[in-house]
User: Which sequence fits this backbone?
């Protein structure tokens, strides 16, 4: 769709994703109000904030579930081209701009094997190799090579998260933490430019959170993928993020490194209100220490 592709921009210092003046209204409700931020390649950018702050709405705008009321969402490619995501349909954002996403709730195919879940994620590549005809059914050489490459890529990621021995098991039989990691590597099998993860640490125990951290750092450091992360677990956010954006009631209230954000009084007020720390209940004071000292 030519309207979705802006003029080339070849500045190597340009951000991977540029969100400019994003607003999203549902009738009289303003869910996102004039939010701007950037996310860079080979960095983990976390979007945090209290419940109802608008974090998932930002993701829905980026991935085509919603059309923003106002704003420009620019994704840059290594070759210098750009995609205007706000002008694209969701399937084109995934297929052409190569923005991959996971959701708050696990969305694996539970009756398919672990390996099959990763092959299905590569459906578009396999269809292109078949030239969108029946040639794939007749073992055309190009299709056979593409199918072998798809399996190799799937097994590479299964080796990375230690699930190769369970490749033939139903995905629904995996432990919860393993299912979470399987969803992430399924997204990676689409070979994304930008990986959007919606609360990947939700429900994980400390060991599973540590495994998640290792996987996300590997994706960032070894594959140089930009990761956009929504997360409530401040331990995860502060340990692995390069950049943190804080939302509250749909507006951006802080934007910077983890160290800058955790010392920002506006962030503390958004999470805990105006009360002094020594007046807070013990469990709330503990949360404050998590945010400030993580």
Assistant:
């Amino acid at each position: 769709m030519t309207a979705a592709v802006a003029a080339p921009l070849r500045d190597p210092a340009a951000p991977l994703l540029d969100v400019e003046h994003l607003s999203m209204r549902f009738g009289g409700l303003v869910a996102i109000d004039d939010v701007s931020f950037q996310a860079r390649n080979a960095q983990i950018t976390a979007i945090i904030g209290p419940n109802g702050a608008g974090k998932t709405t930002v993701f829905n705008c980026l991935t085509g579930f919603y059309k923003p009321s106002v704003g420009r969402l620019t994704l840059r490619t290594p070759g210098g081209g750009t995609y205007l995501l706000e002008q694209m349909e969701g399937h084109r954002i995934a297929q052409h701009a190569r923005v991959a996403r996971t959701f708050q709730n696990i969305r694996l195919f539970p009756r398919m094997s672990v390996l099959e879940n990763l092959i299905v994620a590569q459906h578009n590549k396999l269809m292109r190799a078949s030239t969108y005809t029946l040639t794939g059914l007749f073992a055309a050489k190009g299709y056979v090579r593409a199918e072998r490459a798809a399996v190799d890529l799937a097994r590479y990621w299964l080796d990375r998260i230690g699930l190769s021995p369970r490749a033939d098991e139903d995905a629904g039989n995996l432990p919860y933490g393993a299912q979470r990691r399987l969803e992430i590597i399924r997204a990676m099998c689409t070979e994304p430019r930008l990986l959007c993860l919606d609360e990947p640490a939700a429900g994980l125990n400390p060991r599973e959170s540590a495994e998640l951290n290792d996987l996300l750092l590997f994706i960032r450091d070894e594959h140089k993928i930009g990761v956009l992360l929504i997360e409530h677990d401040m331990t995860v956010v502060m340990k692995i993020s390069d950049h943190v954006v804080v939302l509250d009631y749909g507006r951006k209230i802080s934007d910077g490194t983890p160290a800058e954000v955790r010392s920002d009084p506006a962030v503390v007020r958004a999470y805990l209100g105006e009360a002094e720390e020594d007046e807070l209940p013990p469990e709330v004071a503990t949360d404050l220490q998590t945010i400030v000292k993580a």
Observations:
- The longest strand covers residues 29-39.
- DSSP finds eleven helices and eleven strands in the chain.
